[in-house]
Automatic annotation (TrEMBL):
Residues 53-168 form the Oxidoreductase molybdopterin-binding domain. It comes from Flavobacterium ginsengiterrae. The lineage of its organism: Bacteria, Pseudomonadati, Bacteroidota, Flavobacteriia, Flavobacteriales. This is Oxidoreductase molybdopterin-binding domain-containing protein. InterPro entries: OxRdtase_Mopterin-bd_dom, OxRdtase_Mopterin-bd_sf. It holds the Pfam family Oxidored_molyb.
Length: 198
């Protein structure tokens, strides 16, 4: 009888350990995700030297495209340049981060048309476009947004703000008709990547 009880206690203890350990792992994962999220939520203030290291003099258009492009401010100036009035950068929090009277840039749509997305017939439309910065901040667009929606006429790669070269890199991806324009305002722009949904 005593041995039976002993085995029972052993088994109960064993199951308790088995049930608790994955829970602990899960808790640890959640807390590290939380830490990451808090870091991501910050608006980092870099020294001028460090922010200079993030600047790219050209952006690469790559992925599922016929022509990989390397675009500079000069090459954008040779494309169809648009002037935008009153462009505010508003953070998800509602805070106005930037208030530009005029900006100059080129439609992302025109850039993608130049790069030619590799489409296999007219039903092959499930592509997403990533605008990525050197700090790995990124924003995503869909094929339909750019080519079959008014957003396509409002998504630009900017190179000039208020008559001056843009700050924080040489080119910035923006979407003028977003409700909060901060999230898809990608400065230190490094690449525009086209991928097909698998
Ligand atoms: N490369 C890069 N672009 C970015 C961010 C960033 O951290 N890195 N922050 C975004 C956020 S959260 C906002 S609100 C706007 C304005 O941010 P700023 O105040 O850092 O200029 O830029 C966006 N673009
Ligand atoms: Mo933000």
């Amino acid at each position: 009888m005593k041995i039976k009880n002993f085995i029972l206690i052993l088994l109960t203890a064993f199951f308790c350990v088995m049930c608790n350990s994955p829970k602990k792992d899960k808790e640890q994962i959640i807390s590290s995700e939380k830490a990451l999220k808090t870091d991501n939520d910050k608006h980092p203030v870099l020294t001028p030297e460090d922010s200079l290291k993030m600047v790219n003099h050209s952006i690469e258009v790559k992925g599922d495209v016929e022509n990989t492009l390397n675009l500079t401010v000069d090459s954008l100036k040779k494309m169809k340049v648009a002037t935008l009035d009153d462009f505010k950068v508003v953070c998800q929090s509602g805070e106005v981060k930037k208030d530009n009277k005029v900006c100059k840039g080129v439609l992302l749509k025109d850039i993608l048309e130049k790069a030619k997305i590799k489409q296999n017939g007219h039903k092959d439309r499930n592509f997403y476009i990533v605008a990525r910065a050197s700090d790995d901040y990124k924003a995503t667009f869909s094929w339909a947004e750019i080519f079959n929606n008014p957003t396509g006429e409002n998504t630009y790669i900017l190179f000039e703000e208020n008559g001056k070269p843009v700050k924080n890199g040489e080119m910035i991806a923006i979407c003028k008709n977003d409700i909060k324009t901060g999230p898809r305002h990608v400065y230190w722009l490094k690449s525009i990547e086209v991928y097909k949904v698998k």
